[in-house]
Write a structure and sequence with these properties.
single chain; 237 residues; mainly beta; 8-stranded mixed β-barrel
C-alpha cells in the first residue's frame, strides 16, 4: 500500500469518535445494539433536552480503513475532540406540594335561618315556632320561642328532620366537640360545639329551656317516649 496515504497523526480510536458523536447529539452509534422492541415498536428514549458540549483540542484527522483488501485507504475525515464538560439545561422547578387551603366556615355556610350539622349530614332551613303556638310541629326544624336568654332552641322529629341525631345517639356516634353551624334571620353565622346531652322525661324541660350564661344552642328530638336534649356552646370561627 502507498505510504503516502498514511496519516500524519495517529488516528483516534473509532470508539472515541462514536462516543463524541453521541454526546454531541449526533444520533446513535452504528455499532450500538438495536433497541429492544415493545409491541413491535422501539422503546422511546426519555427527552433530556439539547445538551451544550464544550470542546477543545479540535483537529482534523484521517481515519484508515481497517480492511487490508486492495484499494483500501483513507475512507473519510472527522473531527476529534476531548469532551471536557457536558452542560444540560436545568430541570424546571417543581411546584410546591401541599393541600389546598380549605375555605373558611363563613364561605361554606351562608344564607338565613339555616342549620347545619355536617358530621350527621343535617342541612335544614329553620322555621319559627312561637311559644304561644298550639298546633303540632310538622316535619321541619323549628326554633322554639319558649327558650331562655342565650339559648337557640331547635327541635325536630326523630323520624324526620332530626333522625340523624336520634341514630347518632343510639349508635354511640354522638361526641363532645362535634360542630354545628347556624345562621340567623340576618345571615349572621354562629358556630357551636357539643358539650353534653341528657335523655329526660318530656315534662322535665327546665334544664333544656333554661337561659344560659354564654351563647348556647339546644337540640331536641325524641328517643322513644323520652326527649333527647343536646347542649352546644358557641365558639369562635
Amino acid at each position: 500500500m502507498d505510504s503516502s496515504l498514511a496519516p500524519r497523526r495517529v488516528a483516534l480510536p473509532v470508539a472515541l469518535l462514536a462516543a463524541i458523536a453521541i454526546a454531541a447529539g449526533g444520533g446513535s452509534s452504528p455499532w450500538a445494539a438495536p433497541e429492544p422492541l415493545r409491541h413491535g415498536r422501539p422503546e422511546a428514549a426519555p427527552a433530556l433536552g439539547v445538551p451544550s458540549v464544550k470542546l477543545e483540542q479540535i483537529e482534523l484527522v484521517a481515519v484508515r480503513a481497517p480492511s487490508t483488501l486492495p484499494g483500501s485507504g483513507v475512507v473519510g475525515a472527522g473531527v476529534a475532540a476531548a469532551v471536557t464538560t457536558l452542560d444540560l439545561p436545568p430541570a424546571p422547578a417543581a411546584a410546591p406540594a401541599g393541600p389546598k387551603p380549605a375555605s373558611s366556615a363563613s364561605e361554606r355556610y351562608t344564607g338565613t335561618n339555616h342549620f347545619w350539622f355536617p358530621s350527621l349530614g343535617i342541612s335544614r332551613t329553620v322555621h319559627s315556632y312561637p311559644c304561644s303556638r298550639t298546633r303540632e310541629p310538622a316535619n321541619f326544624v323549628y326554633r322554639w320561642g319558649c327558650a331562655g336568654r342565650n339559648n337557640v332552641y331547635l327541635l325536630g322529629h326523630a323520624w324526620g328532620v332530626f333522625k340523624p341525631l336520634n341514630v347518632a345517639y343510639k349508635r354511640g356516634r354522638l361526641h363532645v366537640g362535634m360542630r354545628a353551624y347556624y345562621t340567623d334571620g340576618a345571615g349572621r353565622l354562629s358556630v357551636y360545639e357539643v358539650t353534653e346531652w341528657r335523655v329526660v322525661n318530656p315534662v322535665n324541660s327546665r334544664w333544656a329551656i333554661a337561659g344560659q350564661s354564654v351563647p348556647s344552642m339546644t337540640l331536641q328530638t325524641c328517643v322513644g317516649d323520652l326527649r333527647l336534649n343536646v347542649r352546644l356552646v358557641r365558639v369562635r370561627i
